[in-house]
Amino acid sequence: MTSRDRILNLFRNNPGEYVSGEKISHLLHISRAAVWKQVKVLREAGFEIEAKHSLGYRLLATPDLLVAAEIENGLSCQLIGRTVVALTETDSTNLQARRLGEEGAIEGTIVVADRQTAGRGRLGRRWESPAGVNLYCSILLRPQIPVQQAPQLTFLSAVAVAETLKEVCQLTTEVKWPNDILASGAKISGLLNEMNSETEQIHFVILGVGINLNMVATQFPEDLNYPATSAFLETGRRVDRLFFLQTFLRRLDLHYQEFLREGFTPIRRRWESLCKLINTQVRVDQGANSCCGTVVGLDLDGALRLQLNNGSVERIVAGDIQPVEALKR
Ligand code: BT5
Fold first, then answer.
1. Phi and psi at residue 26, in whole multiples of 5°?
2. Which residues line ligand 1 (CB under 6 A)?
3. For the segment 204-255, what is each residue's pLDDT rounded down to a tens digit?
4. Residue 138 β-bridge partners
5. On the chain, which terminus has fewer CB atoms closer than 10 Å, C or N?
6. Taking the complete model, does pTM exceed 0.85, yes or no?
């Protein structure tokens, strides 16, 4: 933890109160001049800090920034967020989390970034990641489950995203197989889960989560394959990213613990209840191939169960689905 993070922690632990320069200097083992320098840096980053000669420093307001100490403060998760890495800019939080995983980072480590320069979707696609508006987050997990069950975790994060959008933004969304969350039919969030494993053993799984919170229309490129939206565009209200992230991490933590105790069934049920395409006709595109059928539900490994027109039920393990109704329009 940097000196800046530790000063922020001191403010957080003494809400609304002055913390003397002497106390900060003593606790952090730095000079009074160094304390002042760090306060200056925090002010430049947008933290409103009052300085009173005889009393010390007091935090009045925090900017909409994702700072590790602020994220950790009061998180109270059992597993997720035990280590928080918050970056101003990175190539991809999934790549950073993978690097940390390879170095032995503990389960529950999270990486967030204000901006990604090479945000990734599936199959080498790009994830638009402008600064200051959205959430780009990767969570490192080390579940002791069979390799084939790892895709189940995608549905766990989808449920947590949809529930958090409801709780924090009062926004009703739907989940779309395999990794989308939609609001009014447009993509508001995408998930990219990646695994590091050998034959029978998972070393770690990275849950990559991108959620469009305060993105405005001009920040979306024109050549997106599907309509996209943000919580702000849907509700007209700006979202406090820190509060949203903490709420999301808490939900994810609870769902993950339930998953470790009870397996996939509770999550599968919740995901299916959030999926509007169940019992409707869809087209599945798998590269050069496509087929149509009625969505029946999720299989135990996360495959989509699709009833074809001849009555047989197919398992779809990869691809993109589109409602047939939308294709007719
Ligand atoms: C996804 O892929 O939806 C997975 C996105 C995962 C992003 C997170 S951010 C944190 C973590 N770090 C990473 O590097 N990635 C993860 P896919 O289903 O392939 O969808 C990608 C497609 O969505 C693109 O081809 C675009 O058409 C569209 N798209 C790109 N950026 C978007 C955005 N911000 N909002 C909505 N749609 C977008």
1. -70, -50
2. 92-94, 116, 119-123, 125-128, 136-138, 179, 187, 190-192, 208-210, 212, 224-226, 228
3. 999 999 999 999 999 999 888 789 999 999 999 999 999 999 999 999 999 9
4. 111, 208
5. C
6. yes
